[in-house]
Amino acid sequence: MTPTLVRNLRDADPSAPADAGTRARDWAEIQERMLAPLYEAVYDRLEVGAATRMLSLGCGSGLALLIAAARGAQVTGVDSDRERLALARARLLPEEGAEGPPAHRARLHESGLPSGAGADGTPYDLITVFEPIGCAAGDSEGLVPALEAALPLAARGATVVLTGWGPPERCATAPVLRVAARLTESARPPRPGGWRPTLRDDLEDVAARTGLKPDGSGRVSCPFGYADQESAVRGLLSTGLFDAAVRATDRSQVEKEVTEALHPYRRPDGTVWMPNVFRYLVCTT
């Protein structure tokens, strides 16, 4: 899938505090598609199709599930964000007569894992975690127990895919994300969750802690492209990576400093373009 610039969202006030619904829509309409090349690369490598029974942890607003369902996979998604999950339901469980993937091949759960295996009772043969780690301090801590809870639902020898940010020198977004760390550290006392450099073995560390066996890895180019700076700021803040900075200062201050940090990536036509590389690790149970 070729990355494209997202549409301009001039109808919203970027200085207004974002409620949960607005933030979820910003994620679904602006930011989520930036990771589509990662989803496609993983599905191509694993030959995801009609025989695949997939469980997605942190499924967000469901784009990765939608792409897998379009390939014929049975998909189950879990997410703790109620607003994002509502958007995933609209995408994956359309009303009768509406266009979309077959509803019986998709299941969605808020927070808790499904009580059993896939829709047909067969264990999952693929578990994905498409929310990249390796950017915010401690961002893998919640992933380990989530994986430990999910693995009993998987078949013996099932595949688990973990994803993370690439090296900072390969990610143009890294300097922008440092704004989060600087603003967070300006608070007293410092709050956890700020940006940190990606470590080479972040994904392997999670795999080791959950008893998974690494079985290959890959890197995927995922440029972040936006129609203008306003869309870029809204998209980036929808990721949650700036939440600690907003708590430490305020949203308007974070928006102002993120806008300044984006200047080097603004092109003459006003669009914003930041090349990035993401990494994935394929494991087996």
Q: Topology, please?
A:
Layout: H1 20-31, H2 36-46, E1 53-57, H3 63-70, E2 74-79, H4 82-92, E3 106-110, E4 124-133, H5 143-150, E5 154-165, H6 174-185, H7 202-209, E6 213-221, E7 224-226, H8 229-237, H9 243-248, H10 251-261, E8 272-274, E9 277-284
Parallel strand pairs: 1-2, 1-4, 2-3, 4-5
Antiparallel strand pairs: 5-9, 6-9, 7-8
Helix pairs in contact: 1-8, 2-3, 6-10
Description:
The chain is of the alpha/beta class. The chain has helices at residues 20-31, 36-46, 63-70, 82-92, 143-150, 174-185, 202-209, 229-237, 243-248, 251-261, and strands at residues 53-57, 74-79, 106-110, 124-133, 154-165, 213-221, 224-226, 272-274, 277-284. Helix 5 (143-150) links the parallel strand 4 and strand 5. The radius of gyration is 19 Å and the shape is globular.
Beta-strand fraction estimate: 15-25%
Distance between the termini: 29 Å
Spatial ordering of strands, largest sheet = 3-2-1-4-5-9-6
- Overall mean pLDDT stands at 86
Number of helices: 10
SSE pattern? HHEHEHEEHEHHEEHHHEE
Helix content: 25-40%
Return the structural class.
alpha/beta
> How many DSSP-defined strands?
9
Largest sheet: 7 strands, mixed
Note poorly predicted spans: 1-17
Radius of gyration: 19 Å
Shape: globular
